[in-house]
Amino acid sequence: MKAIAKPAGIDAHNRLVGVILVAISAAAFGTLAIFGRYAYAQGMSTLTILAYRFTLAAVLMGIILALRRERFPRGSILLRLVGMGAIGYVGQAFTYFTALKYASAGLVALLLYLYPLFVTLLSAVLLRERIAGLKWVALALAVAGVALTAGPERGQLPGILLAITAALLYSAYIIVAAQVMKEVSAIQSSTVIFASAGIMSAFLAWVSKVPVTIPDSGWWVIASIVLVATVIPVTTFLAGLARIAASDAAMLSTLEPVVTVLLAAGLFGELLAPLTLLGGGLILTAVLLVSRSEIHKPL
Q1: Integer Cα distance of 34 and 32 in angstroms
Q2: How high is the pLDDT of residue 299?
Q3: Which residue in 20, 161, 182, 260 has its CB near the most CB atoms, within 10 A?
Q4: 43: helix, coil or strand?
């Protein structure tokens, strides 16, 4: 029986919806550093922020999991997801939020976007993937970008190093996730990762004797971190990814640090030095080149 082709307009509309969803996701993720600053202003500790962020996000993702009638992961996959959340995600989030104490939100966001380049390097070392063509150019641009970005901001060196560490940890997390995600859905994995990250963050806060109470005036910040900067970007990204290619989604995601830089400038008056902005532009250009090389990679 001959298949009936979909009208071109439907595909175009579906793709447009995907682009909008991923753009919303990137913009929402871009607010994380901003809300982190507000949380610190309310007197919250890093572990307090993470414990509430991940635990409440896990509850919401668990509801989505139940509504979709998906099974909870089991066996070795469950153990690997728990490790990803309790070690990888907590480590990355902790260094990212701590970096905000020592460096501007825009600078931290720009440096975090080194992670696609780190993924490329780790894939070459650990997975024996070949680096060729545009990726070498991208790596060179990224190195130059870091030098320019960090140069004028040497007074923020602890934050710079923490932000780069966060990018490295996130890269390792992605390498592991690429293998695990072949066996579970994104909703299943997100639920377990958030839950294990929440439990680990709460445990570390308890061991460190960090108070986990939230001032009444601070609940709006926690709610914003959970909904605007975690659940909404995760769900819209997944929905968008079902409509457009992963490489296209990666390109659109470069909107994230741009949103952070603009919000930080408008809300906190954090203006980055011209050389820092130039370096950030080189880093984002490198990310776009890596994404472009993935688009044209032979199958």
Answers
A1: 5
A2: 41
A3: 260
A4: coil
